[in-house]
């Protein structure tokens, strides 16, 4: 049984002696948790009730995920992770580790062309059937095999086993220690270790005992390809010591580039159009029975679930022998689908214009943000279908964000004849001044504000107050509903986690404080706020910080917090960026600006990329969450704003020069430049629909959205661009 948490807590993995015990324990745990959260007589919130995922529930979840994948609401990677989890694969179990496919077949070219099918592996065949000459040997064995107790099989080895996982991950702990333990306390011979991507793929095509697939790390973790701990892995037969994994020429010697291109390949149109074949083999109807025979997808019988009834086996010696064989030689995943898996739906360029056609986005409208003109828009926040604005002079307003979907009052699938529409609508809250005073030494800007949502209630957090507090403002009426004073100097920046559960504040006192949002029983909270009865005791944020993080020598200027990554990143005027864990508040590492200049802004993605900006030398520096420098660039003029797209693949920068510059979060290369309206841009937001909303010095709101006609004329350039090319 595996227990998953909705924050950064790692899953708990428990092993029981029987199926009966695990079902009883799981059902009891779920029942106790739901009863504690929703006592008898209380209204149950569907989203908060948990269930024990047995086979029936797993199939329902799989069907739902399949439909979302078909509609392109989730990526290929996300879908495969869901299927792996539902099929019993876990990072906590080396004998049943998640399985991913080899997707590329070309590991020798300088550049890859995703428009050529020969670039890709044939996903309709198991690895053992990819090479015709070797497959003939497997087929002969299958046809001529004769044993009264053992059914015929094509492949004696498996595509996923503990040995395969440790083979790939031997350069990373704890897998290094586990690998050595498996090999009797020492590394295997250097020539048998994982030394090259190309040789690993060629070996899986030619070696009669190697039909291995990949693991998820090949699509997100460059660190496993480097011998960063300088292990002595031995000397190869050619006299060369074994160190880092040798990469294909198209990776240009960079593990990050290899992972990026491999992930691009996984999400490419070829793989999207053919992945259902591979799913049929690994998780679907071609896993067993006659379809498996016809697909040449038959493995040794004990690798299949239910092939041996271990619980009722009396011969303990035979039982232990079979258990040992199952643990070490591979297990076929639980079969999820019994019928043919459908193909993925066609791409929807208009839903992801930044990826498919960034040039299709243009300036489509300009409106005044407030009644009084010439008041700079210093903050733009987005919550659901509302735009939260703060103008110079602490003028707050909330407006509607209008889209084709909200106009039609339902889902718009981008397939109809209508032209797409995006724009700023009427006021939800008319412009009003917030009744507070900022400290004299504070420069009012984006870093002082953040939005958060608790259940259906929306709030704005405002820092920079003269009395060293930060305030929570209700966005239903603009009132200050909570004021928190714990820092010993002015609170200079704030960040909220993407799930809205955690708030981080940075102060001139050089500390960072971590706060938890108060989430009472949803039903109670809703009843009170519906009647506008928020009392002083109804805290939006807990009054005491969970952690006080130290380490900086000067004022904190920028922050990022993520429950997903269990990380707090803080930038300071002292030129350092410090990483702490969110859950424990433990120091992890520091990154310093190359020239020691103070940091002005930072952005970070859920994929673990951090970009730092210093307005002193206008430099941008990208690092991995593990501290490795990836790229640097110089901004075009002084930046007032840096914002990420929802997908995390792009960063939009804007400032006094009046244009929006779109950069790749892989390389910091410029993807596109959007000219403004000749006005300095003071604030920026990117919507879910990949539109830009820019606030200007004179109080205007500029909307940059997709021109439907342009995207229809375009030819989806990303599919023809070499993936190793810039931007």
UniProtKB/TrEMBL annotation:
<dbReference type="InterPro" id="IPR050865">
    <property type="entry name" value="BEACH_Domain"/>
</dbReference>
<feature type="repeat" description="WD">
    <location>
        <begin position="484"/>
        <end position="515"/>
    </location>
</feature>
<protein>
    <recommendedName>
        <fullName>BEACH domain-containing protein</fullName>
    </recommendedName>
</protein>
<dbReference type="InterPro" id="IPR023362">
    <property type="entry name" value="PH-BEACH_dom"/>
</dbReference>
<dbReference type="InterPro" id="IPR046851">
    <property type="entry name" value="NBCH_WD40"/>
</dbReference>
<keyword id="KW-0677">Repeat</keyword>
<keyword id="KW-0853">WD repeat</keyword>
<dbReference type="InterPro" id="IPR015943">
    <property type="entry name" value="WD40/YVTN_repeat-like_dom_sf"/>
</dbReference>
<dbReference type="InterPro" id="IPR001680">
    <property type="entry name" value="WD40_rpt"/>
</dbReference>
<feature type="domain" description="BEACH-type PH">
    <location>
        <begin position="1"/>
        <end position="30"/>
    </location>
</feature>
<dbReference type="InterPro" id="IPR036372">
    <property type="entry name" value="BEACH_dom_sf"/>
</dbReference>
<dbReference type="InterPro" id="IPR000409">
    <property type="entry name" value="BEACH_dom"/>
</dbReference>
<dbReference type="Pfam" id="PF02138">
    <property type="entry name" value="Beach"/>
</dbReference>
<dbReference type="Pfam" id="PF20426">
    <property type="entry name" value="NBCH_WD40"/>
</dbReference>
<dbReference type="InterPro" id="IPR036322">
    <property type="entry name" value="WD40_repeat_dom_sf"/>
</dbReference>
<feature type="domain" description="BEACH">
    <location>
        <begin position="54"/>
        <end position="344"/>
    </location>
</feature>
């Amino acid at each position: 049984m595996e227990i998953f948490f909705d924050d950064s807590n790692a899953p708990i993995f428990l092993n029981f002696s029987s199926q009966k015990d695990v079902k009883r324990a799981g059902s009891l745990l779920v029942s106790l948790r739901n009863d504690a959260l929703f006592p008898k007589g209380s209204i149950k919130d569907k989203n908060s009730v948990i269930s024990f995922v047995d086979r029936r529930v797993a199939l329902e979840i799989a069907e739902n995920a399949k439909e979302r994948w078909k509609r392109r609401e989730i990526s290929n990677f996300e879908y495969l992770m869901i299927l792996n989890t539902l099929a019993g694969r876990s990072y906590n179990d080396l004998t049943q580790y998640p399985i991913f496919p080899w997707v590329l077949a070309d590991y020798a070219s300088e550049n890859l062309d995703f428009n050529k099918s020969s670039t890709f592996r044939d996903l309709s065949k198991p690895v053992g059937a990819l090479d015709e000459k070797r497959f003939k040997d497997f087929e002969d064995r299958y046809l001529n095999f004769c044993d009264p107790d053992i059914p015929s099989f094509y492949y004696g080895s498996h595509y996923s086993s503990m040995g395969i996982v440790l083979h790939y991950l031997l350069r990373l702990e704890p897998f290094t220690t586990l690998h050595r333990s498996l090999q009797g306390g020492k590394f295997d011979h250097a020539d048998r270790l994982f030394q090259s991507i190309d040789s690993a793929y060629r070996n899986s095509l030619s070696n009669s005992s190697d039909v291995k697939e990949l693991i998820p790390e090949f699509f997100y973790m460059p660190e496993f390809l480097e011998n960063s701990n300088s292990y002595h892995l031995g000397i190869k037969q050619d006299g060369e010591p074994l160190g880092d994994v040798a990469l294909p020429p198209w990776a240009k010697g960079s593990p990050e580039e290899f992972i990026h291109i491999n992930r691009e390949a996984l999400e490419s149109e070829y793989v999207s159009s053919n992945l259902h074949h591979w799913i049929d083999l690994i998780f679907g109807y071609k896993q067993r029975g006659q379809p498996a025979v016809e697909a040449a997808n038959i493995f040794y019988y004990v690798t299949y679930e239910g092939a041996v009834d271990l619980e009722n086996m009396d011969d303990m010696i035979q039982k232990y022998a079979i258990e040992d064989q199952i643990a070490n030689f591979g297990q076929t995943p639980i079969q999820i689908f019994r019928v043919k898996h459908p193909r993925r739906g066609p791409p929807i360029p208009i839903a992801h214009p930044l990826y498919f056609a960034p040039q299709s986005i243009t300036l489509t409208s300009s409106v005044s943000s407030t009644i009084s003109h010439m008041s700079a828009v210093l903050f733009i926040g987005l919550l659901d279908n509302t735009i939260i604005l703060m103008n110079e002079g602490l003028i707050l307003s909330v407006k509607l964000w209008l889209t084709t979907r909200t106009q039609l009052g339902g889902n718009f699938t981008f397939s109809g004849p209508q032209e797409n529409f995006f724009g700023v609508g009427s006021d939800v809250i008319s412009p009003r001044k917030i009744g507070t005073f900022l400290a004299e030494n504070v420069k009012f800007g984006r870093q002082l504000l953040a939005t958060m949502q608790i259940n259906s209630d929306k709030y704005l957090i405002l820092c920079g107050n003269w009395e060293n507090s930060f305030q929570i403002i209700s966005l239903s009426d603009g009132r200050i509903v909570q004021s928190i004073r714990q820092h010993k100097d002015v609170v200079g920046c704030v960040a909220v986690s993407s799930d809205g559960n955690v708030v981080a504040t940075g102060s001139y006192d050089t500390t960072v404080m971590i706060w938890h949002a108060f989430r009472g029983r949803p039903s109670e909270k809703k009843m009170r706020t519906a009647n506008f009865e928020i009392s002083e005791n109804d805290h939006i944020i807990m009054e005491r910080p969970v952690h006080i993080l130290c380490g900086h020598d000067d004022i904190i200027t920028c922050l990022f917090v993520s429950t997903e990554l269990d990380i707090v990143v803080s930038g300071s005027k002292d030129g350092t960026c410090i990483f702490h864990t969110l859950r424990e508040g433990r120091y992890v590492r520091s990154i310093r600006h190359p020239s020691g200049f103070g940091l002005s802004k930072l952005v970070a993605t859920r994929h673990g990329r951090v970009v730092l900006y210093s307005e002193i030398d206008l430099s941008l520096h990208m690092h991995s969450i593990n501290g490795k420098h990836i790229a640097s660039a110089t901004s075009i003029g002084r930046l007032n704003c840096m914002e990420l797209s929802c997908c995390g693949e792009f960063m939009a920068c804007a400032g006094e020069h009046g244009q929006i510059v779109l950069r790749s979060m892989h390389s910091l290369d410029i993807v596109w430049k959007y000219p403004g309206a000749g006005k300095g841009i003071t604030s920026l937001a990117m919507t879910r629909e990949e539109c830009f909303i820019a606030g200007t010095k004179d109080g205007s709101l500029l909307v940059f959205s997709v021109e439907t006609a342009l995207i229809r004329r375009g030819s989806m350039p990303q599919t023809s661009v070499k993936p190793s090319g810039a931007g």
